[in-house]
Design brief:
The structure holds 2 protein chains of 2 kinds. By secondary structure, chain A is of the alpha/beta class. Chain A contains 9 helices and 7 strands. A 5-stranded parallel beta sheet of chain A has the order 1-2-3-7-6, with helices on both faces. A two-stranded antiparallel sheet of chain A has the order 4-5. The longest helix of chain B has 14 residues. In chain B, the strands form 2 sheets. Chain B has a 7-stranded mixed beta sheet, sandwiched between helices. Classes of the chains: A alpha/beta, B alpha/beta.
């Protein structure tokens, strides 16, 4: 297990991000696997959440609804000492670290396995709603927060909006949704395939307190958005729309939907590493 | 059976603060008592079955005991992926109650029938399906469901137990009548038609008697040696189920009997869908699928030819 990270300054975060990106690239290279772009897209969000927002001692939990970014989740959990598994087992036979977060319950920091889109928000909504009733196993009644990271593509799923209706109706203020809105989905851009705009208005009309993060791969902008939302002291569930970049940090992957699928060859891996290491050197 | 379920649930929610009752906006004039007893633990999630099941899995993960209600087809088919992934694969203690299994909603039509629910659900990991034999049988099935801390489905039907036959003992697989010349199994409330047919046969002189077994739990556990011996000895077997053949009781049982090296002359009366494309009451659909007592009577006679 890695040493638990503490992130105080933007510089701390930069170091954390660079190390995490290297780990992520190595993970996918060793596995010769795809979903790199999707993981890079939300890596900053996950690192931010675990460094600043998720309080494990309060019982906070996160559901990664866009399960295809499992690599980013594994790396983040590992960085914060919440993963007791060797990252090298990723994709290997007999691993707990499958290409999508496991349903086995064997990793305590992963309450639900995901991978089929449109499930995570209902699960997170149920977890947040449960705090209304109290439970013998969860003494932190009313304080615990549930975070859910969605992709924009999975907002095509009707079930996502069923859950949003419920969360808004019941004013689940302990539910925090972050949409990794990279603007790309399976076979192209969300705009061309099934336009989600006006996206913020949609969440607003479902009775969410909303905020758009113009650069969802920027630590400070994510932090500012959380601050802004908290200052509103709303009793609504929160939805942060993070405008991100698929493949963020690796220029030849950025905004290229094929990096949803492609594994890296040796040259691409070297080029990606060089770029990551060079940026903040 | 829904009335009995509501009575039972009203008491349960009073006793157990972990229970949260979720309804997909159904249950008119059925759960008012439950709503009163449960207070804020009675939650109408709206017409959104997928969310209801996902939500329930989330609640269960936090130590609560969600009981989800809708009519059987809506409770099972729309949210089947949520049942498979969020509930069954994660082995969450979520109870799903489907009212009007089989042709229970009669003339409401195909959209309101559940003929493949047990095939879908009994194939899922950790899932146990309960199909009470009659109104009175609801209570023991509901208790069995609660004593199992895992995904469960309770398929509600209707009908009272025949007064001349002793009340069924609580068990998922039970012998109801001893006969000795053939073996008949009935799954859930359609057993009432089986019993009517067998009683009519017994009222006639010189007609061989059949043993009748009631099945109210799927997947089937190990078969009893008494049952296996009886099928082996009589060599005649009839399985009656208000469910399609694929993935139903007969297919399930056939494999278990083959594993036990038992061969018998076998008939299966099961839901045939909508053979004439027309709709009617539950009895009308049962008749079209030969699930009514007269057809069961005839089929039993044919077993002895």
């Amino acid at each position: 297990m890695n040493q638990v990270r503490t992130v105080h300054t933007e510089q701390d975060f930069k170091l954390l991000k660079r190390g995490s990106t290297e780990l992520l690239l190595a993970l996918y290279k060793k596995a010769n696997a795809g979903h790199i772009g999707s993981s890079l897209s939300c890596l900053d969000i996950l690192l931010y959440l675990y460094s600043k927002e998720i309080d494990s001692s309060r019982g906070d939990q996160l559901v990664l609804s866009k399960g295809h970014a499992a690599g980013a989740l594994y790396v983040t959990l590992s960085q914060f000492g919440l993963l007791n598994e060797d990252l090298d087992t990723f994709y290997k036979d007999g691993t707990k670290l499958a290409a999508h977060p496991p349903c086995s319950g064997k990793i305590p920091a992963i309450p639900f396995g995901t991978g089929s889109l449109g499930h995570g928000l209902s699960l997170a909504t149920g977890m947040a709603f449960a705090q209304r009733f109290g439970s013998s196993s969860q003494p932190t009644l009313g304080e615990k927060k549930i975070f859910c990271v969605l992709s924009d593509g999975e907002c095509n799923e009707g079930s996502t909006w069923e859950a949003a209706l419920f969360a808004g109706h019941h004013r689940l203020q302990n539910l925090v949704v972050i949409v990794d809105a990279n603007g790309l989905q399976g076979l192209g851009s969300t705009h061309d395939i099934l336009d989600l705009e006006p996206f913020e208005d949609k969440w607003k009309s479902f009775n969410f307190e909303t905020c758009v993060i113009q650069d969802g791969n920027d630590f400070q902008q994510i932090a500012d958005a959380f601050l802004q939302i908290q200052e509103r002291s709303s009793n609504k569930p929160i939805c942060l729309i993070a405008r991100t970049c698929k493949g963020a940090g690796v220029s030849f992957m950025e905004n290229q939907f094929q990096w949803h699928y492609l594994p890296m060859n040796d040259q691409q891996y070297e080029a990606a590493l060089k770029e990551i290491r060079g940026r903040d050197a | 059976m829904r009335k009995e379920f509501s009575q039972w649930l009203e008491q349960k929610v009073s006793e157990n603060p972990q229970i949260v009752f979720l309804t997909g906006d159904l249950g008119f004039q059925a759960f008012e008592g439950v709503a009163k007893a449960a207070g804020k633990r009675f939650v109408n999630v709206g017409v959104s079955e997928q969310n209801m099941i996902g939500l329930a899995a989330g609640l269960a993960s936090q130590g609560l005991l969600p009981i989800c209600y809708s009519i059987a087809p809506f409770a099972v088919f729309r949210p089947l992926e949520q049942i498979r992934l969020d509930v069954c694969i994660h082995n969450m203690n979520v109870k799903i109650i489907g009212n009007g299994g089989g042709y229970g909603y009669g003339v409401m039509g195909a959209t309101h029938h559940a003929l493949e629910d047990l095939a879908c659900l009994s194939s899922l990991p950790n899932m146990k399906c309960f199909v009470p034999l009659c109104n009175e049988d609801l209570f023991s099935n509901a208790e069995s469901m609660m004593s199992y801390a895992g995904p469960s489905y309770l398929r509600l039907g209707a009908g009272a137990w025949p007064p001349t036959i002793p009340a069924p003992t609580p068990s998922g697989f039970r012998k109801i009548l001893s006969g000795g010349e053939a073996v008949v199994l009935g799954l859930g409330p359609v057993i009432q038609n089986v019993l009517k047919a067998e009683l009519e046969r017994r009222s006639q002189e010189g007609v061989p008697h059949s043993s009748v077994y009631g099945v109210s739990e799927l997947p089937l556990a190990q078969l009893t040696s008494e049952f296996v011996d009886e099928v082996k000895r009589t060599g005649r077997l009839l399985i009656v189920e208000e469910h399609v053949q694929r993935g139903g009781l007969a297919e399930h049982l056939a494999l278990l009997l083959m594993k036990n090296g038992v061969h018998a002359k076998t008939r299966n009366l099961c839901a045939q869908g909508y053979p004439n494309g027309l709709y009617g009451s539950q009895s009308y659909h049962q008749k079209l699928s030969h699930l009514d007592s007269a057809s069961i009577h005839t089929t039993l006679s044919e077993l002895f030819l």
